[in-house]
Amino acid sequence: MIAEAQFNRATLDCMTALRRRLKQSLGVTVHLSEPDAAEHMIDLSRDCAQDDIRDLGERLASMLEPIAPEPEEAFGLQSAIAARQRQMSQPRATRPPEPAPASMGAGSVRIYRGQVIRS
Known about the structure:
mainly alpha; two-stranded antiparallel sheet
């Protein structure tokens, strides 16, 4: 199944060209509406004796290969400085709120017209 992010005009052009060549040389009809049409065409092109069909299949396979996300384990093994730099580079909204300093004491705090009033 093709991910939506991978499907664009170039992918569609490559799929139709490969479909046309497979039908001409092998007599195989592949419907593009099938959920596994791309994988089926890639498998057929790998077994084909004609170079142009194999090249089209390889090009389509390279267009459809998934983009690997960054592994989460790698972040756990990094140094403390690198982890802090990564944390600081994140947008402010995604960072957890910073704890209040201990020097404020246990008094009450209220905000009046944008000003902090401690009592």
